[in-house]
């Protein structure tokens, strides 16, 4: 296990290149096993979740090899096992995409229930409801989900609530069902669109991804495809906030600016200057920042995965800010750690009230999950003195090379092993 040591109050300046989107990668890689052939996936982030999924593919009989650090060749020439209940599967939530992928190709799947972050209950009832609507029998028990069907038949599915994972998982299963499936009240996140685009490159017939209604004409089989995944909206937002919280001037490159609109608008409201270019955004915070209120919503609203990070920023802005977390039941657990750095945050259920403070100060803190860990790093960058952040394994799940990317921008940050 490692820790990060950060000496704060260094203005970040320069350029940072954003890696491929974690939440697209963790859907596209399982989707690759739907083809009886080879896919080449480019622009993958070099993160733990990607390697974990590769091990799962290998254990069910597929093959993978890294063509380079960010490009994977996945050979899913069958037959593959349809049972994935080993340790790698239990380690991450996105393993549930193997349910939709295996059910699509083999009409049967057995997958261990996901682990994932610790911010509240993370049910998958909407995923299973979608599979049942397509005609599958789904049995849950002993931490494993079993699903099977003589055939999957397209139908109309109205999502009780907007769910990224359920939208993608149902799309996977419906891609090889008989007939047409309509998913209404679908999630519109960029990684939903990215997964649909990859499936269409494999021969699927999916229309409407990115809107509330996705229409899928099922096909009998899919072939491998070459595909480059989109840049990571959340990593990009994290570095935009890093520039703002240090009063820096940073060009965030290799992004899709449109995906950043909700954060761009919020930073503009906070008196941060933003320059948009074709595939980059320049963030310059040379004025005093204003406080602001934030409500997290499904895309295109303000992303919940940037909520801890914007709370760290607002903790450094004079005045009172109110954050409402509308997606997850309990996504303020990290606030206790933020308070150790001097942040003044009061939490009441899904609402956090921040009293911006003059100066955060260094302390020993821990990452309680992936994005909370990123928030600790951001607060440490602004804090006076040295901060030690434990639980870096969480941060490594979603941020490639974080200490080098920040170091190249002028941050004083280093990784150290924790003595056992
Ligand atoms: C995805 O999780 C992301 N993870 C999460 O990012 C992100 O926070 C979330 O979408 C929302 O944008 C991946 O893509 C791997 P949901 P997911 O289904 O799909 C409820 C990160 O930091 N719900 O959109 O699991 C659920 O409890 C991670 O990268 C059900 O009730 O999220 C939540 O309140 C953290 N039943 C809401 O819907 C279900 O069957 C949205 O969840 C599914 C979800």
How would you portray this structure in words?
The chain is of the alpha/beta class. It has two domains: 2-11 and 257-271 and 285-417, Enolpyruvate transferase domain (UDP-n-acetylglucosamine1-carboxyvinyl-transferase, Chain); 22-218, Alpha-beta prism (UDP-n-acetylglucosamine1-carboxyvinyl-transferase, Chain), CATH 3.65.10.10. 31% of the residues lie in helices and 26% in strands. The chain contains 14 helices and 24 strands. The chain has a four-stranded mixed sheet. A four-stranded mixed sheet has the order 2-15-17-16, with helices on one face. A four-stranded mixed sheet has the order 4-5-3-14, with helices on one face. Helix 1 (22-31) runs parallel beside helix 2, helix 1 (22-31) runs parallel beside helix 4 and helix 1 (22-31) packs parallel to helix 7 (190-201). The termini are close together. 52% of the residues are buried. The model has no long low-confidence stretch (mean pLDDT 96). Bound molecules: ligand EPZ. Ligand EPZ binds at residues 22-23, 26, 93-94, 117, 122-127, 161, 163-166, 187, 304-305, 327-328, 370-371, 398.
Count of individual beta strands: 24
Distinct ligands, ions and cofactors found in the model: ligand EPZ
Q: DSSP strand (E) fraction?
A: 25-35%
Would you identify the CATH H-level superfamily of the largest domain? Enolpyruvate transferase domain
How far apart are the termini? 9 Å
Identify the notable features of this structure and list them briefly.
420 residues, alpha/beta, UDP-n-acetylglucosamine1-carboxyvinyl-transferase, Chain, 2 domains, 4-stranded mixed beta sheet, 14 helices, binds ligand EPZ
